[in-house]
Design goal:
- By secondary structure, the chain is of the alpha/beta class.
- Helices cover 38% and strands 15% of the residues.
- Helix 5 links the parallel strand 4 and strand 5.
- Helix 8 runs parallel beside helix 11.
- The structure holds pyridoxal-5'-phosphate (PLP).
- Pyridoxal-5'-phosphate (PLP) binds next to helix 3 and helix 4.
């Protein structure tokens, strides 16, 4: 049996090696390492995949979020509403720009921002809502967009973990996540569902003027070469990564199907156990299982994590400390928040290996060890 890993990028690479190697060599031979046709083609293909007008590639998902906030004119003293139960990048970029993150609770089932309590967090300083589609499940975008419209707020989707997830509105309209808010941000970090072999990220929007701003800010605020209109930064996706991503994009739906199949297997294995809650799947979106995250009830989660490790099975806690409890946010009053659901989940979640190369033999072993621990413990 192949070694168990949280994510197996090597086996996945070997299946597309011929095409990837040729594409990388073609970039080397062209010596067009930054910008150019390969990057533009990938951006166009990603835009088409999402059904959006513009995709602006950048250096990573963190930059995408930062540039999005800058392009929308968010500035020091403004507030953005965001979950605390997320990867730090979502809120770190706000803080970096002097914007105050206002942390709200997540829904216990979806792990994503709870639309019902967003309105309570709105103040005259609020400029944007930043929902995070955590683990591959969608934040409930329809009510979020309604609240944003009512209060004249921007919506920046952090779609680093849910690329390819299709969200259905009540009227039957379907849209890919990342294409619903004013700007969608994603990451091509190697372990992400559309992973590069290095860093990468992208922003997407249907707004022409906003697309120009995103492009300009990602390129030193320049409107034309050596004419800098606004303060920007330097954030580029390189051509080698774009060439790799363009190939992998053609497999993305297949990769998602493989992840969903693996999730189905785990779901069935754990179905009968009342101490384990398997990931919830709302019917209005197509979970893409960036992570397969269990919520444990009456189980010593950290002991299970160690037990699995002792048996050669990796597992991860995403994330061991919620954003509002990070030292980084002491200055923003982080420790004053009372986020009971966020804390409750932080103590109970555990993510099992899930990726495109997992086979049933591996999954059975993982499931058996989880269940074995739970049975020993009681
Ligand atoms: C990975 C990730 C990011 C940041 O992406 P990088 O490319 O690593 O900068 C932001 N938000 C979430 C939710 C992520 O999972």
């Amino acid at each position: 049996m192949r070694p168990l890993q949280m994510v197996d990028t090597k086996t996945q690479y070997l299946k597309i090696k011929t095409a990837v190697d040729a594409a990388v060599i073609a970039v080397l031979e062209s010596s067009q390492f930054i910008g150019g046709k390969v990057v533009n083609d990938f951006a166009a293909n990603l835009a088409q995949y999402h059904g959006v007008k513009h995709v602006i590639p950048c250096a990573n998902g963190t930059d995408a979020l930062q540039i999005a906030m800058m392009a929308l004119g968010l500035k020091a003293g403004d507030e953005v509403i965001t979950p605390s139960f997320t990867y730090i990048a979502t809120v770190e970029v706000a803080a970096l720009l002097g914007i105050k993150p206002i942390f709200v609770e997540v829904d216990k089932k979806t792990f994503c921002i709870d639309p019902d309590i967003i309105e309570n967090a709105i103040t005259p300083k609020t400029k944007a809502i930043v929902p995070v589609h955590l683990y591959g499940h969608a934040a409930n975008m329809e009510p979020i967009m309604q609240i944003a419209k009512k209060h004249n707020l921007f919506v920046i989707e952090d779609n680093a973990q849910a690329i390819g997830n299709v969200y259905a509105f009540a009227d039957g309209t379907k849209k890919k996540l990342g294409s619903i808010g004013d700007i969608g941000c994603t990451s091509f970090y190697p372990s992400k569902n559309l992973g590069a072999y290095g860093d990468g990220g992208a922003m997407m929007t249907n707004d022409d003027a906003l697309a120009d701003k995103l492009k300009m800010i990602a390129s030193h605020g320049q409107s034309k070469r050596y004419y800098h209109d606004v303060v920007g930064c330097n954030s580029r996706l390189d051509a080698i990564q774009a060439a790799i991503l363009d190939i992998k994009l053609t497999y993305l739906d297949e990769y998602i199907a493989a992840r969903r199949k693996a999730a189905d297997f785990y779901d069935a294995a754990f179905a009968a156990n009342d101490k384990i809650s398997v990931p919830f799947r709302a019917t209005n979106n197509n979970h893409v299982f960036h992570q397969y995250t269990l919520t444990l009830n009456g189980v010593d989660r950290d002991a299970l994590h160690l037990y699995l490790a002792d048996n050669g099975i990796p597992s991860m806690i995403y994330y061991p400390v919620p954003a509002h409890r990070q030292k980084m946010f002491d200055a923003f009053g982080g420790s004053e928040y009372k986020l009971e659901t966020t804390d409750w989940l932080t103590e109970r979640v555990i993510s099992l290996p899930i990726h495109t190369e997992l086979d049933e033999e591996q999954q059975q072993l993982i499931a058996n060890k989880v269940l074995e621990f739970i049975n020993i413990q009681f």
